[in-house]
Design a protein that fits this description.
Shape of chain B: globular
Largest sheet of chain B: 3 strands, mixed
Radius of gyration of chain B: 24 Å
Largest interface: A-B, 103 and 105 residues
Oligomer: heterodimer
Strand content of chain B: 5-15%
Number of strands of chain A: 7
Helix content of chain A: 25-40%
Number of strands of chain B: 5
Largest sheet of chain A: 5 strands, antiparallel
Helix content of chain B: 55-70%
Structural class of chain B: mainly alpha
Shape of chain A: elongated
Chain lengths: 180, 306
């Protein structure tokens, strides 16, 4: 009788191990999606560290763990996360990842809608501009210059890959990974 | 015999403990996912409960319902409004390249170094104005007047770090009034607003509610955020400078000269004791870095191009 009771106990234990382990694995490896156009995968949880590869917008990643963000009196900061994607393991800022729901919603907007909408701002909004705080009534109108923003974005292409592009700049100034 | 009887129970207890320990690191992430899902799918069966749920969740919009893409959309239009007033120097101007070098070095030290599109840094052609701005999504601006006013690279880094801190701390979306945020959320959910059913477009682009949000954020970006947000950006900016290798106390020097020149620390939106508050925070960091001559030399060279 005692022997049979022991068997049942062991079966229960094994079932517990299986279910709790599965639940833990599911939670720790929950899927998220890259929500920036290009996301470098870093060797360490800092953007100064070597990049192991890049992840494109919409790429699914498994979050393995989050690295505690510094919590100062300045407010909550997003953490970094150790992730796995496409057979690569590394670190990314967790703030660059979103849920499938949010990704699906924002993916319905075409790039053209964002960058070349050439929207006209309402009279009310133009009025808001005129009364903006700090300008002391100095604003002379609310003309939105989307072409100038497009030009800035286009011009920024010559400064891409800032980690390698400005490596000598940081080295000379003893900054970033070269700081003391 | 006692061993056989109790061993399974002990094993089960240990297993559960290990299981919960495994779950623990993922809790923060799961909570945020639940929060986000709640904001979208937690819409009740009636319109009243819809609205109530949305109004309640409106306070959390900045944290739970936005990602880098939404910040970029907001920042794009805020920047468009800003550039309706200012003329930018061209990207090939030497000062622009230098600004990218300093700004990128700082951004890499933050917890959010990547935006939907890479950060942009722009010099605004305004010699008579001492100012800098940052819009959500990583659009950073500084006037040529401010570049001439600053005395070395560490001071420039301090001013830029303050602006970058606003982006990192998500101050733009957080500065939108609760009512406007709720209106925007209703537009996302396709709930009727007044006579107009708006917002079948994902992200709310083009909706009146989105316009209102842009207007409010632009007001904060140009005129200053709340005193609390400005104080936080000062403190976090010092931490970013420190992490990047710059002198974290550089902003205190800028503020003292700014106050002596303009008679204020930036206007009504800034803490009255801004300089003292920042000094206190910098002292708590317990690190002082000397300004390197190499950094100052290249800063002077950049200034000569203006």
């Amino acid at each position: 009788m005692k022997y049979r009771f022991g068997m049942r106990g062991w079966i229960l234990t094994l079932a517990g191990v299986a279910s709790v382990t599965a639940l833990g694995a599911w939670a720790a490896n929950a899927s998220r999606y890259v929500s920036v156009i290009t996301l470098p995968l870093h060797q360490q949880p800092t953007a100064y560290s070597e990049t192991l590869g890049t992840l494109d917008y919409g790429a699914p990643v498994q979050v393995l763990r989050e690295i505690d963000a510094p919590r100062k009196d300045t407010g909550d900061l997003p953490p970094w996360a150790e992730v796995e994607s496409g057979g690569m393991k590394g670190f990314v800022p967790a703030g660059c990842l979103v849920s499938s729901k949010l990704l699906a919603k924002q993916s319905n907007i075409s790039e053209a809608e964002v960058t070349s909408a050439q929207r006209r701002f309402s009279e009310e909004e133009t009025g808001d501009l005129k009364t903006m705080k700090g300008l002391g009534g100095g604003a002379t109108g609310g003309a939105a210059n989307t072409a100038a923003v497009d030009a800035i974005i286009e011009g920024s292409a010559q400064f891409s890959d800032v980690r390698s592009r400005f490596s000598d700049f940081r080295k000379q100034g003893r900054l970033g990974e070269f700081s003391e | 015999m006692h061993k056989n009887k109790f061993l399974p129970a002990i094993s089960l207890t240990l297993t559960l403990l290990i299981g919960f320990a495994t779950l623990a690191p993922a809790q923060g992430f799961l909570n945020s996912v639940r929060k986000a899902a709640g904001a979208v799918t937690g819409v009740g069966s009636s319109e009243t409960s819809n609205e109530q749920a949305l109004v309640e969740s409106g306070a959390d919009l900045a944290d739970s319902e936005r990602g880098p893409r939404q910040d970029y959309e907001l920042g794009y239009y805020v920047s468009a409004l800003l550039l309706g007033k200012y003329t930018p120097l061209p990207p090939e101007h030497p000062a622009t390249g230098y600004l990218y070098a300093v700004g990128s070095t700082l951004v890499m030290a933050t917890q959010m170094p990547y935006a939907y599109r890479p950060y942009t840094f722009t010099v605004l052609d305004a010699d008579d104005e001492l100012n800098a701005f940052a819009a959500p999504g990583g659009f950073v601006f500084i006037t040529s007047g401010m570049l001439k006013f600053l005395q070395n690279e560490d001071e420039l880094a301090a001013v830029l770090a303050h602006e970058i801190a606003h982006v990192e701390l998500n101050h733009g979306p957080k500065s939108v009034k609760k009512e406007t945020r709720s209106r925007f959320l209703r537009s996302l959910a396709g709930v009727a607003v007044g006579q107009t059913a708006v917002g079948s477009v994902a992200g709310g682009l083009g909706s009146e509610a989105f316009d209102a949000m842009v207007g409010e954020v632009a007001g904060s970006v140009i005129g200053g955020y709340s005193r609390a947000f400005e104080g936080n950006a000062d403190s976090r900016g010092a931490e970013i400078c420190l992490a990047a290798g710059y002198d974290p106390s550089a902003l205190t020097q800028v503020l003292e000269r700014f106050q002596a020149t303009t008679g204020s620390y930036g206007g009504a939106s800034y803490p009255k004791e801004r300089g003292k508050d920042l000094q206190k925070h910098v002292a708590s960091l317990k690190v002082h870095r000397a300004v390197l001559p190499e950094r100052s030399a290249r800063f002077t060279e950049m200034q000569s191009t203006l």
